[in-house]
Amino acid sequence: MNHERVSDLSMPAPCLVDTGVVVNKNDMLRLLQDLSQVSYRHLQDDRVMAEGQGLVMEVFADSQQATLVANHTLYINVYSFDFLEIGKAGADQSYFDLVQDNRRLRLIPMSNPMKDHLTRTANTAAFEAMVVDVLSASWDACLDDDRNFLD
């Protein structure tokens, strides 16, 4: 078999549905950026070191910065971990385990992205309607002022 032809063959990109291991940092970023409020558990050698609830403030990839969990906030650097494991902790509860050697940071979403998206969409529509009303009122006031000036 020709060596050049073998190099032309490419493997398909992975497809994970609800479970699996993610090693690509960009894929890890995409998965974690949608998280907002989470329950977290920090495990070392399968012993719980800390647990609580917090808000994911930022997810980033930088080899010079730390992952920080403090004061109910999480700043997650995907470079702090070797891989991310996706799993299910029940019929409807997903979890994301960030793993580095014998350390594991488990994140369990406390919000539903589908409901959050609908709420955000509704809030955006309400805000846009309010802006239209304000601009319309402003234009009406300008037209009224112009009419009074011409009289």
Q: Helices and strands in order, then pairings?
A:
Layout: H1 3-8, E1 20-22, H2 25-33, E2 37-44, E3 47-60, E4 68-70, E5 73-77, E6 83-88, E7 94-100, E8 103-109, H3 113-150
Give short descriptive properties of this protein.
151 residues, alpha+beta, 8 strands
Could you walk me through the main structural features you see in this protein, from its secondary elements to its overall organization?
- By secondary structure, the protein is an alpha+beta fold.
- It folds into two domains: 109 residues, no CATH class; 40 residues.
- The protein has three helices and eight strands.
- An eight-stranded mixed beta sheet has the order 1-6-7-8-2-3-5-4, covered by helices on one side.
- It is elongated, with a radius of gyration of 24 Å.
In short:
With 151 residues, the chain is an alpha+beta fold.
The helicity comes to 25-40%
Query: How many whole angstroms does the radius of gyration measure?
Result: 24 Å
Main sheet?
Answer: 8 strands, mixed
Give the rounded overall mean pLDDT.
83
Strand order of the largest sheet: 1-6-7-8-2-3-5-4
Count of discrete alpha- or pi-helical segments spanning 4 or more residues: 3
Q: Give the SSE string.
A: HEHEEEEEEEH
Alpha-beta content class: alpha+beta
Question: How many E-type strands?
Answer: 8
Tell me the overall shape. Answer: elongated
* N→C terminal distance: 92 Å
pLDDT under 50 segments (min length 5)? none
User: Quaternary arrangement of the chains shown?
Assistant: single chain
Sheet-strand content, in percent, reads 35-45%
